[in-house]
Every structure is written in C-alpha cells, then in structure tokens.
Amino acid sequence: MQIPAFLLRKLYVKGSLENADDGFMFKIKNSLSPGTAIGMEPLKVDDNEYPLEDTVVKSEDVEVEASEISEDNSFPIKVGVEVIIHVKGDQLEEGEHKIDISLKTKEAGNLAFDVKDAL
What we know:
Elements: H1 5-8, E1 18-20, E2 23-29, E3 35-40, E4 43-45, E5 48-50, E6 55-59, E7 62-65, E8 75-77, E9 82-88, E10 96-105, E11 109-118
Antiparallel strand pairs: 1-2, 2-9, 3-8, 3-10, 4-5, 4-10, 6-7, 6-9, 10-11
C-alpha cells in the first residue's frame, strides 16, 4: 500500500527545524497508524546528503543511530508520539530548507516525502 506524499507530509511537525550545538534537528509525529521502521535512507537537506551514521532517531525511551535501524533492530513509530531526528554536523543557515525523508516500514514499505521548513 503506497501512502501519498501529501499525507506523509502531515507527519512533519511544522516549525520544529532548529540548530543544535552539534548540527540540527527536527520532529515528526505519527498521526496515521502505528508503524515500524526497518530501514532509513540518508536524509537530504537542500540536496546535501547526510550519512546515516551521523543521524540519531529518538522517541520516548528509544534512541538509535539511523544506520542501525533494520528488520532485526526495528524502531517503533507510535501514533501521537513525537520522534526527534538529530543530524550531527554543520548547523543550517537561517532561511527556508527542503528536507527529503525516506524510510522503509514493515507495514507500508518505502515511505518517501519532502517538506519545507525555515530556521
């Protein structure tokens, strides 16, 4: 079952993009149905790709490096729970940015969408 990008964009918490001491972060919040991430593609911001090793995904009491998400080490995406995606590296410049997000779920296969947010 392919979920349309316009629905997936609603997962992104608008206005959550912010710089951190060691990079930047943003939030997604599942409002559709429970899911299980079993893989993730490198994030792209303004067409710059960020390695999975530099991306940390956390929610509630679970924190995992994006490169470690797999079928054997899945990441639960619960309804109504915010997931913070923290990318270690350079901070982003002020202004609008396009973020490309792509992950693989057990339930719906590959989910890919892009959003725009500003610092």
